[in-house]
Amino acid sequence: MSDLVPADTTEDVRTRGAGVSRQVAVLPVGSFEQHGAFLPLATDTLVACAVAREIAGAYPVHLLPPVTISCSHEHAAWPGTVSISSVTLHTVVRDIAASLRRSGVDALVVVNGHGGNYVLGNVVQESSARGERMALFPAPEDWEEARERAGVVTSLLTDMHAGEIETSILLHAHPEMLRPGYETSDFVADDRRHLLTLGMSGYTDSGVIGRPSLGSAEKGKELLASLADSFGAYFSTLTSADDGADG
Q1: pLDDT (tens digit, 9 = 90+) per residue, 48-90?
Q2: What's the whole-model pTM score?
Q3: Which of 13, 147, 180, 223 is least surrounded by Cβ atoms within 10 Å, i.e. has the fewest?
Q4: Rounded to whole angstroms, how far apart are CA atoms 247 and 103?
Q5: How far apart are CA 165 and CA 212, in angstroms?
């Protein structure tokens, strides 16, 4: 699990910063919430970190340690789930971005591993309106491209939680973290219009919505590779000299 925390020294950061026109930091944001009986509570954090590590392997970015507890209120019916308020998460990300700017890193990409962190979109939108350089990654379009490239069968609508995508990424990046049972835990609930009112327990007893039985390490590897490719457009946007930000 040591790969969840970057091993950089301050000199590593100084050297990397000297070689680029504009420094970009990458902040993984996960969660600590139920993912059925076979995936760990830290699944979303593990996924966000796997995506962030893939990005850091391909681009000169400053990789940050993850935010490991976020907005998981829809999973409160299951033991082990822990949440903070959206206001708190909003403040944490803004404070991190402000601290980075004071140290000369003026662009931040938030790599979100949990769909319930709706507030992150507000953080990025508000920060961008102030002239700050910030982005939220991956977008649904990036996930869709990755799904198609990796041969993921389940749609993004159906693959909502602890399904084919998350199982595949963990089978590739952290196979030691999976417990037996994903092969027989498929459950579909595509109509979730009252999710914000009822929570996940209104739609699933197991905590799973998706088809984890279709997951594979090969799909997980391709998902991450596709997301790293998609990140190129974000990196270019944030490092360009004429994107309207104050620099």
Answers
A1: 999 999 999 999 999 999 999 999 999 999 999 999 999 999 9
A2: 0.95
A3: 180
A4: 13
A5: 8
